Amino acid sequence: MSKPVKQIHLAAHFPGVNNTTVWSDPRSGSHIEFESFVHLAQTAERAKFDFLFLAEGLRLREQGGEIYDLDVVGRPDTFTVLAALAAVTDRLGLTGTINSTFNEPYEVARQFASLDHLSAGRAAWNVVTSWDAFTGENFRRGGFLEQQQRYSRAKQFLDTAWELFDSWRGDEIAADKDSGVFLTDPLAGSFRHQDDHFDIGGQFNVPRSPQGRPVIFQAGDSEEGREFAASTADAIFSRHSTLDAGKAFYTDVKGRLARYGRGHDQLLILPAATFVLGDTEAEAAELAHEVRLQQFSGQTAIKLLEQVWNRDLSAYDPDGPLPEIDPLIGEHTIAKGRASVRNGRDPIELANEWRARAEAEKLSIRELIAAVGGRQSFIGTPATVAETINQFVQEDASDGFILVPHITPSGLDEFADTVVPLLQERGVFRTEYEGETLRDHLGLGTPTPAAAAEAVAS
Amino acid sequence: MPSSPISPAADDAADVEGSPAAPLHLAVALDGAGWHPAAWREPRARPAELLTARYWSDLVAEAERGLLDFVTIEDSLSLQSTQPLQGPDDRTDQVRGRLDAVLIAARIAPLSRRIGLVPTAIATHTEPFHLSKAIATLDYVSGGRAGIRVQISGRPDETAHFGRREFPPLPTDAAGFASPEFQQAITARFDEAADYVEVLRRLWDSWEDDAEIRDTATGRFVDRKKLHYIDFQGEYFSVKGPSITPRPPQGQPLVTALGHMTVPYQLIARATDVGYVTPRDAAHAREITAEIRAEQAAAGRAGETLHVFGDLVVFLDDDAAAAADRKDRLDQLAGAELQSDARIFTGTAAQLADLLLELQQAGLTGFRLRPGALPDDLEQITRRLVPELQRRGAFRLGYEADTLRGLLGLPRPANRYANSPVAAAI
Q1: pLDDT band at residue B87 under the 50/70/90 scheme
Q2: Do B109 and A84 touch (CB under 8 A)?
Q3: How far A399 CA sits from the closest chain B CA (Å)?
Q4: pTM exceeds 0.90, yes or no
Q5: Fewest Cβ atoms nearer than 10 Å: which of A14, A118, A214, A303?
Q6: B206 to chain A: which residues are within 8 Å by CB?
Q7: Partners of residue A76 in chain B, C-beta under 8 Å
């Protein structure tokens, strides 16, 4: 029996602070000015994408004790940009990455509930964690968490936020001028939460929002991260570079859902992906090679290598072989503020793997870093890219993709104009939004508040 | 100019033909259905829409049609209450629930063009790093029209919503308020707010205006010599910096605060661009502005423009009796006469214009009007009061600047870190 044809989910990632963003291209515009965000968001909406995705950074990255200056530096505030974008779009989901370590649940829940109201049900929250003192130096709590506490705080942060979202049932506001009853329940929004990280209570002051609660995204590939996503998230933002790796991840994470009483469709797997389009396969490959050279200059390759080696490697030739010395183990002193540094694999193991590959394929430092540094990238004509994306989705390597253009803000235009129509022709991507909210677009139900659900059950 | 109040009507023509006083600035304070707790029951009120973007964009569009300098948007980290110092009041006959003011401002920014947007932030419980980038971003999305009203909180229920610090219980009577303990606690919260504002401003300056260089020859996106650690160390928090958001279009968005007594007056004088005060009459306004101007001079800011705006709650109608009747009707619906920290005015737009010009003579440079009911009193401001003031030569005929600082006659601040002695020595 053949499987039913899956519908693809697509989203746009605003190109940000990393080496995949090619800022040196003459077409590259501002990463700060609002017009850039408007352009990308309106392009994504024109193409009927599910949502726009914003990453976050809370401290400028440093390397070797200096602010890192080879990539784009700086970005605007996530909530503020998303709220403003709600004014210039009608249907596009608005997904913001917000750290659960350097925020408080009451405030973040308030901001997301507000964004959901102000966008008429289009808000989503990518929950990320941090624990490092480096970022903490910008915040009141300062210091940092024990690393093993980062997921427990994130989990309890999210639990607390859910209680706040669910503290209004949604029917409390009568606003009846004649009778003078504004609120039917004086205790609307009541909550009490006590656990290892939070001991708070009172009344939440944002009434229930159109989606009940924002769509919850989780990023992170560790065992704990996968479990956290399977237990609580609506979608997972992953990073897997091949069809096989994608399938393995998909099977693993979806397999964890049942133990939390959740169905297969209640968690979407959406990896990040880049793309390069050309009129012919050869032209696309050539363009991709040019982009790769812009993304991985000799300087950038050495800096990326230092992030694994945790040593000053400035004396090495980027066009020469990989260092024979091993990475320094222990606290990262070279690179600070990098997710890859905080979450990385065992550096010695990784170094050995890279050296073996460089030797086998005769790769210089720069060539090796370019080979391992890219994300899943779709390179080809619009027809072959549409075909490949569809293959990934139909073969359960993902439920869709979060596309990261390498040019701001026009990098999605060509994809919208050429690839999307081909997916629509195949009947695997919407030609018009069918619902109003982001939960509608993603095929996720609107959650009922716990209190209401209990009332129904009893 | 005589210091006596300007007499009404008869002198208007002379004012227009003579040399009018410095232009008067006008802001309007938006909160729910208006500042009267029963305002939501007025025929034209839209109480079921208070949480929608459309409601706020309609109000701001009206304010912009009236050429007002800016709107403020009230906020709190707890439910509205008739006894805010004690906590929620369990009442069901008044507006309860609200949205984050910074996000409301961001949501309406692309829908307006010239008017300033000044949301409220609670300095006591929020992070200056987050707020700094939020307001810098509001400045980007509005093209240089952002400001912030910094407010403190002593409410026990707000403290419990965060659960990370403890404050002494608030006094319940006048003697308690006057006690040294309470005054000390208040002073500490304002000291913290002053630190908060200092961090906002340093973070806005932490990028020099030309820090982004995109130098393809050397592969450098920024000149990191033009990014600065702020290294703020205070009693309540420390912040390293630099900001992640580049310096906003206005350099520093507008900083504002409301004050009713000496300690907040000091915050206004030392740290803000606009202070809101609540004079009972012209004599009181003279007293307050004298105190603030003295503090301003003591803080070494005598040469800087610092606006002192009078706050007034207003009920306006085409005849004075109708305005008073409307307020009485709302008082009856609410079951109590309206109480406010600010003077409550009922009357016609022309009568209000008289009062504003009188108070301006006493040293105020502008006003933040709190409409008793929305949209009625807002429309009276934009469609009656503004033309009246224009006729008297006391208000702008069109927006004369693109930025909020420009409207208020405030210069774009120099960056404290640019051309620092260290840089100059190199």
Answers
A1: confident
A2: yes
A3: 31
A4: yes
A5: A303
A6: none
A7: 133, 136-137, 140-141, 245
Alpha-carbon separation of residue A341 from A25, A130, A347 (angstroms): 28, 12, 10
Would you give the distance in Å from CA B372 to the centre of its chain?
17
Share of chain B above pLDDT 70, in %: 93
Q: How many angstroms separate the CA of residue A216 from the nearest CA in chain B?
A: 19
CA-wise closest residue to B280 among B327, B344, B331? B344
- Does residue B207 carry a pLDDT above 60? yes
Q: What is the pLDDT of residue A454?
A: 55
Chain A residue whose CA is closest to B228: A67
Please compute, for residue B185, the number of CA atoms within 13 A of its CA located in the half-sphere on the CB side.
Answer: 15
Contact list, B233 vs chain A (CB under 8 Å): none
CA angle A308, A314, A318 (to 5 degrees): 80
Q: Is B322 on the interface with A (CB under 8 A)?
A: no
Res. B108: pLDDT tops 60: yes
Residues 6+ apart with CB under 8 A from A69: B220, B221, B222, B223, B224
Contact B373, B33 (CB under 8 A): yes
Tokens of B158: 């707000």
At residue B304, does pLDDT exceed 50?
yes
Comparing CA positions, the residue from A141, A150, A93 lying closest to residue A433 is A93
Q: Which two tokens stand for residue A124?
A: 């989503």
What pLDDT score was predicted for residue A128? 85
**Binding-face residues of B in 108-147 toward A, CB within 8 A:** 108-111, 125-127, 129-130, 133-134, 136-138, 140-141, 143
**Residues whose CB is less than 8 angstroms from the CB of residue B84 and which lie 6 or more positions away in sequence, other chains included:** B76, B78, B155
For chains A and B, what is the number of CB pairs under 8 angstroms? Answer: 222
With an 8 Å Cβ cutoff, are B92 and A184 in contact?
yes
What letter would DSSP give residue A416? I
pLDDT at residue B226, as a whole number: 97
Residues of B in contact with A75 (CB under 8 A): 244-245
Give tens-digit pLDDT for A247-260: 999 999 999 999 99
- Chain B: give the shortest CA distance to residue A73, in Å: 7
Comparing C-alpha atoms, which of A143, A189, A273, A24 is closest to residue B221?
A24
Say if B247 is an interface residue toward chain A (CB within 8 Å).
no
CA distance A291 to B257: 50
Interval A358-384 mean pLDDT: 91
CA distance B125 to B75: 13
Taking contacts as CB-CB distances below 8 angstroms, the residues of chain B near A304 are none
Considering only CB atoms, B137 lies closest to which of A76, A180, A300, namely A76
pLDDT value at B173 more than 60: yes
**B173 to chain A, minimum CA–CA distance in Å?**
24
Structure tokens belonging to residue B337: 């006469």
Residues of B in contact with A81 (CB under 8 A): 106, 137, 141
* pLDDT classification of A457: cutoffs 50, 70, 90: very low
Is there a contact between A129 and A228 (Cβ–Cβ < 8 Å)?
no
Average pLDDT taken over every residue of chain B? 92
What is the predicted pLDDT for the residue at A143?
A: 62
Query: What pLDDT was estimated at residue A421?
Result: 98
Partners of residue B223 in chain A, C-beta under 8 Å: 69
- Between the alpha carbon of residue A128 and those of residues A233, A238, B377, the distances in Å are 12, 13, 45
Torsion of CA A247, A250, A251, A257, to 10 degrees: 180
The Cα of A138 is separated from the nearest Cα of chain B by a number of Å equal to: 4
Which residues are within 8 A (CB) of B369 and not within 5 positions of it... i.e. 6 or more apart? B26, B27, B28, B29, B311, B312, B314, B377, B381
Tens-place pLDDT, residues B257-287:
999 999 999 999 999 999 999 999 999 999 9
- Out of B134, B161, B246, the one facing A79 most closely (by C-beta) is B134
